[in-house]
Every structure is written in C-alpha cells, then in structure tokens.
Amino acid sequence: FGTRVNLCRVVQELRQSSLPVPVVVHPEIAPSQQVASSPDQPCLAVEEDEEGFLELIEEGTRQFGFMTEAISRMDGITRELGDRFSQRPGELGVSESADLPHLRRYFNAVAADLEHYVERMEPEVPLFREACSRGVAATSKAIVILRDFPEDNRGDVDGVIRSVSGFVSSLDELHEAISSSRVMVSSFPRVTGPFGRARRRTASVLDSLLTELATARTLVSEVQKSLNALVDRKNKEI
Length: 238
Known about the structure:
The protein is mostly helical and 238 residues long. Helix content is 74%, strand content 0%. Helix 2 packs antiparallel against helix 3 (100-121) and helix 4 packs parallel to helix 6 (193-237). The longest helix has 45 residues, at 193-237. The protein is elongated, with a radius of gyration of 24 Å. 31% of the residues are buried.
C-alpha cells in the first residue's frame, strides 16, 4: 500500500510538471577574426573570393534566424510534453487510489511520451550548434570590416550592442530553465524499466542542449566584447 501511495505522488508531480524553454529573440549583428593587412594596403582583400560586409551580415542574420527557429521548435516540443504529462492520468484513469497495474501502465505511457520527446529533440541540438557557429563566425568577420567604415556609415552600433546583450540574457534564462528541467527529470525514480530508460535518454539530450547553450553563450559574449571595443575606440577618438 505504501508503495502505491508513493507512486501516486510521483504521478501528481509529473502531472504538474513541464519543461519550460523560453523563446530567444536573436540579435541582428554579432564578432571577430582579425583580418591580416599590411601598412600600405590596410583594406586589401586576402582572397579574391572573400566575402564582403553585406554578404557576411546577411549570412549572420540568416544563421541567427535559424538558431532562433530551432529554439522555438524546442520550446513547442517541450510544451507538448508538459501537456501530455497533464493529460495522461485522465486518459488512463489513474488516481490516488490506482492499483499497481494501472500505475505501471501509466508510467510506461509516460515513458513512451519521453521517448517521443527525445526523438524530436535530438535533431534540433546539432541544428542549433551549427547555426550558432556559422552565425557568430560570419558576424565576427563583419565587425572587423565595420571598423574600416567611416563613422557616419557604421549604423546604430549601440542598438546592436543592446540587442546582443538581450540575447546573452535570454541564453542565460534558457540555460537556467533547461537546468531545472534536467533536475526534474532525474528526480523521478525508476518505477518501471521503460520509464527508467526513457528518463536516462531524456536527461542525455538535455545535457547535450545545456552544453550547446553554454558554448553559444561564450561565443555571443565574444561578439558583445568586439562591439564594445569598437564603441570604446570611437569614444577615444572623439
């Protein structure tokens, strides 16, 4: 009887739980590999097919858009999982007085939901990683070229800095939310074999996402530093 009561408590916790993933708004520009130049030819292209400022900005914006779309999809997938957690008890007729066979069916159904979650989330993590890498690389090169532009043609650099700062904050919030989700998933006991396996796979994909979010945070912070350095140099010249 005591085991049944404890399992019912776990059901209630699952029913009330969700894995929140806030949507991140992407910046329009982002930082920086130093382009080699000679004193006599400071703006001379290193390669004939090297991309220019407009191509780099377009690519950076496009990749940050892909990154935001991946986060949005992961948000939707995660919210659907939370909805399934809430719906399962009613669908299977599980309550605080449920017997062990009913509880076993419930947790195996939840395990199936977790497995489906993993199948949908796993492809999103590498998409997020690639978009971040390409987006930061392109916009870093663009910022280097922006240093050669006349002051009047640089555009609203301060506005871009605010956008990047907001993006960094959003990544921090997202990392915190996923960390909480990871702790929640790991807190449930291995009540059935399928549930235990699904729990481990879910924790693994969340760990992968946490790693990519930390990397993205570092890369975008470098963008922020490059932009701040550009503004600081401008202020010193005034």
